[in-house]
Amino acid sequence: MSRVAKFAWGLLAYNLLVIAWGAYVRASGSGAGCGAHWPLCNGEVLPRAPGVEMLVELSHRITSGLALVGGLALAIAAHRSQPRGSLVRRGAWTAFGFVCAEALIGAALVLFELVAHDKSMKRGLSMALHLTNTFFLLAALALTAFWASGGSRVSLRRQGALPWVFGVAIAGMLLLGASGAVTALGDTLFPVHTLSEGLAADLSHGAHLFVRLRVLHPVIATAVAALVLAASTFARILRPSPQVRSLARSVSMLVLAQMVAGVVNVTLLAPVPMQLVHLLLADAVWIALVLLTASALRAPDPSEAKNASLVAPTAVPS
Question: Is residue 238 classed as helix, strand or coil in its secondary structure?
Answer without folding.
Answer: helix
